[in-house]
Specification:
Layout lengths: L14 E2 L4 E9 L3 E8 L4 E8 L3 H19 L11 E9 L2 E9 L5 H7 L7 H22 L1 E2 L8 E3 L9 H4 L18 H19 L13 H5 L12 E3 L6 E2 L16 H4 L7 H16 L14 H13 L4 H4 L5 H4 L17 H7 L5 H14 L10 H5 L9 H14 L1
Antiparallel strand pairs: 1-2, 2-3, 3-4, 4-6, 5-6, 7-10, 8-9
The structure holds adenosine-5'-diphosphate and magnesium ion.
Amino acid sequence: AYRKGGYHAVRIGDPFSGGRYIAQRKLGWGQFSTVWLAYDTRTSSYVALKIQKSAQQFAQAALHEIEFLSAAADGDLANSKCVVRLIDHFKHIGPNGQHLCMVLEFLGDSLLRLIRYNRYKGLKLNNVREICRCILTGLDYLHRELGMIHSDLKPENILLCSTIDPAKDPVRSGLTPLLEKPEGNANGGGSTMNLIEKKLKRRAKRAVAKISERRVSMVGATGEESSSKRERSLDGIDMRCKVVDFGNACWADKQFAEEIQTRQYRAPEVILKSGYSFSVDMWSFGCTAFELVTGDMLFAPKEGNGYGEDEDHLALMMELLGKMPRKIAIGGARSKDYFDRHGDLKRIRRLKYWPLDRLLMDKYKLPEAEAKEFAEFLTPILEFAPEKRPTAQQCLEHPWMNVKTMENVDAQMNNLHIKG
Ligand code: ADP
Ligand code: MG
């Protein structure tokens, strides 16, 4: 991928933008870019430098992202809306062509890394609440104030404002291969979607290997594994976070793509092509919140004998949420591919209903009261009818978000203490 039209190879110490930014180490990469920690010599601070692949379509995507990040920054002068801040952007000419570069505020690990670090056990509910508050603050801002749909919300695209200290945990350094090659095939060819899907398939495979299949049986789906995992402490990590990656964002009244979102976080109306709006982000948020609590992806569809990934995805949704109302099931441009005229799936006939509160209790061993409360918060967010889903603002006001536990009270006292 490091060739014409592809990634820009960076060495530690390389200067950018006339020497203003000095590359320090690689932070991560996505399908379009590599992201480097850089030192900003003008402000004497660290920044994240997102260096886009050089080919025309990537440059186009970067311009698109810059447009959305600029809009987000312009409306949030106090930088309090939980959206990553764009500091600067410029062009950089290298051997592989001209690369658009974005200078972003430097953030910490993604929630995906946090989940992995915690060995897919799920986080404490108070930590989840704090993370959810940030995500919802960001979404409320994007939706209500800017009219923007993020379209690719998932744990990978939410970054902590602090870092997990690798010194405390040697295993974790292995999760952050700093000098590895970016993902992608050697010649940089192949469609972007292919690369994304491949990456996700690998991840889904891992998840599926862990999750005993919902459709098979409840027996054996116990939490045994988790008890044997060595406890690792996330104490002292500030769970504030920000939404990143605006490469797929769109305006609610000016949409670009029919197929949006990463597979596991994709809303039913996107699969059925019934049209979409802000509430697709709420669906992805719901999937993300579940994953934070349990460590498992909520839906990890895969194709099977005689049915495709989409149909499996719809089946998994209905096994958790109940039957999709007929009107919704048959109302999309793609409905006929999956549903008969009664609103039953064509190829997957026997569904095994396993509602959210029971799943949380039986498989994830949440105490009954906690499972019920969390399910009450999450179930409306996973409404099949997009217009019935609560808005980010409504979620922020939900009782589950505002639970007063002793721990919360302690944290608030500490905050007061620090501020005072
Ligand atoms: P892509 O659009 O190519 O997916 P992202 O914007 O998602 O790119 O960034 C890719 C990865 O780079 C992220 O998952 C994260 O690990 C890292 N990264 C991105 N932005 C920042 C930032 N502001 N601070 C620290 N790391 C970042
Ligand atoms: Mg990304």
